[in-house]
Amino acid sequence: MPIAKLPRPARLPVRSYATTTSSRPPLSGLSATAKAKAEQLSKEWKGTSATGEHTKNFIGGQFIESKTDKWIDVVDPATQTLLTRVPETTSSEFEQAVSAASQAYKTWSRSSVLTRQRFVMDLQHQLRQHGDAIASSIVLEQGKTYPDAQGDLLRGLQVVETACGIPTALMGQTIEVSKDMDTSTRRLPLGVCASVAPFNFPAMIPLWTIPMAIATGNTLILKPSERDPGAAMIIAELCQRAGLPEGVLNVVHGTVPTVNAICDHPAIKAISFVGGDRAGRHIYERGRATGKRVQANLGAKNHAVLMPDANKNHALNSIIGAAFGAAGQRCMAISVAVLVGPTQSWVPELVERAKKLKVNQGFEQGTDLGPVISPAAKQRITSLIASAEEEGGIIALDGRGYEVPGYPDGNWVGPTIIEATTTMRCYREEIFGPVLIVVKADTLDDALAIINENRYGNGTAIFTQSGATARKFEREVEVGQVGINVPIPVPLPMFSWSGNKASFLGDIPFYGRHGIDFYTQNKTTTALWKAEDAIGNKASVDMPTHH
Question: What is the pLDDT at residue 1?
Fold first, then answer.
């Protein structure tokens, strides 16, 4: 239930915020470590650059320079240094990608399941061998810390490893339904599929779809985020090294025109999307209008409930890590802490622990969180923080105006904690930054009411040492993914993603058993081989009854 309106605090002094209007020349603003990583990436990988050259399309097994006249700058969010320029893939180049995928499907869909299993096994080896390159690209383009970038890859790699069990996952069913008559069902691929990935997990989300789509016999067109495509381009090259035939995986780039082309093309049978509400609804509606299967993971507002009997140290550390890791740019980040009863006095301790977090460039030792993705994202986040002030919220810890020595142009927002009500804009909207909203509840029932009234249903958590309390919460909370003393309950890939309500559009979610369902269609065959037909010489004209 909504809490009473908080008393309006005194106005804080006006701050000035650093902004940037243009990118720096390639390599010019990078630290020595970042510069060395950028030069190594540009030297060793065909499709990406971190030294100012163009990112390429990957079509029909070739890394191809786009002929577009529209380019998108990718910059290091810690320094605004130009890393690469991404093409708005032209309509003819997109058609080439679809044609390559369609042609490859004719043979790949007929390849044995063991051939496809071998590819997935070889891909996981390649990903482990070249994890440093993928993580380094993520740090440069997305801004994550190096350990967090490694985790980005690892969670995707777990999907790859699970897909190694594809022969068992694709097993069909057969039963003798009548004398000498069998009915069997088997799983077949759909055709050409597409994946549209977000900026916040440049490796993990492509790896949610690549192994699942390809191991089931489909071909795939991937559109990574135009903000950080480097990890996807490295993964595409590793697929090639793992023996994937030409055209089975294609990578195109761009913004709305490319997305619309994916939604509209009749040869594409399914779309997988992870990202924000506006784009997700657009893709779902436009894709469904042309008869495609669509799975779309959208926004979130994930609540963590702190009960008075919780292990206090574990709960506070978990909340801080889940709220501020990756600068809050996770769809499963804890963005709301619901403090029940006596735990309402824990706010000062949350603040003290958050203050100890180190904000810096991702390669710097000891960094806990890096910059947000862009100046526009920083402006939106700080605007939402300001709205809390205007509506009477209490900013217990203010991360605006955060400065990092040596990185004056970074998109810095420090950890922020706001005491708010459920009617405030900072609570109602997804902030997608290092901001924790704290709301208060008298009882567990009040906490459940707050969560269940929220339109999103991606994830939630409760911290308690009572089994009965945990059971009540798990049973009554209307959210698809629940953690009990676990702050970010993302299912491992032997299970499936299960966010619900306004956080998901579609009928079939990501990876696990449901991932197999999404990328396959059933074919049921009934066959009759009568034993007496071997010697019989008279046809039957009676209505078949299958007895």
Answer: 41
Structural tokens at position 229? 């495509």
User: CA-to-CA distance for 75 and 96, rounded, in angstroms?
Assistant: 28
Q: How far apart are CA 459 and CA 166, in angstroms?
A: 28
pTM given for the model: 0.93
Name every residue whose Cβ is closer than 8 Å to that of residue 538 and which is 6 or more positions away in sequence: none
pLDDT at 70: 97
Integer CA distances (angstroms), 381 to 19, 221, 362, 430, in order? 14, 32, 20, 10
Active site residue 331: yes
Query: pLDDT per residue over 458-514, tens digit each?
Result: 999 999 999 999 999 999 999 999 999 999 999 999 999 999 999 999 999 999 999
The DSSP output letter for 359 is: B
Residue 47 is classified by DSSP as: S
**First and final C-alpha spacing in the chain:** 61
Structure tokens at 349: 């301790």
The chain-wide mean pLDDT, for the chain, equals 94
Integer CA distances (angstroms), 536 to 310, 531, 540, in order:
77, 9, 10
**pLDDT over 70 percentage in the chain:** 95
Tokens 């970042």 -> residue: 34
Is 417's pLDDT higher than 80? yes
Condensed to tens digits (0 to 9), the pLDDT of residues 280-295 reads 999 999 999 999 999 9
What are the start-end ranges of the E strands in 407-514?
416-419, 435-441, 456-457, 460-463, 482-484, 500-501, 504-505
Residues 300, 500 contacting (CB under 8 angstroms): no
Please report the pLDDT score of residue 29 as a whole number. 95
DSSP per position, 404-428: -TT-TTS-----EEEE--TTSHHHH
Q: Amino acid letter at 124?
A: Q
The 10s digit of each residue's pLDDT in 249-258 is: 999 999 999 9
Read off the pLDDT of residues 46-84 as tens digits, 9 standing for 90 and up.
999 999 999 999 999 999 999 999 999 999 999 999 999
Count CB neighbours of 319 within 10 A: 25
User: What is the rounded CA–CA span in Å between residue 325 and residue 458?
Assistant: 17
Question: Residue 143: in which H helix or E strand, if any?
Answer: none
Distance CA 48, CA 173 (A): 44
Nearest to 370 by CA among 196, 152, 208, 223: 152
Single out the catalytic residue among 164, 239, 263, 331.
331
Interatomic CA distance for residues 189 and 521, integer angstroms: 6
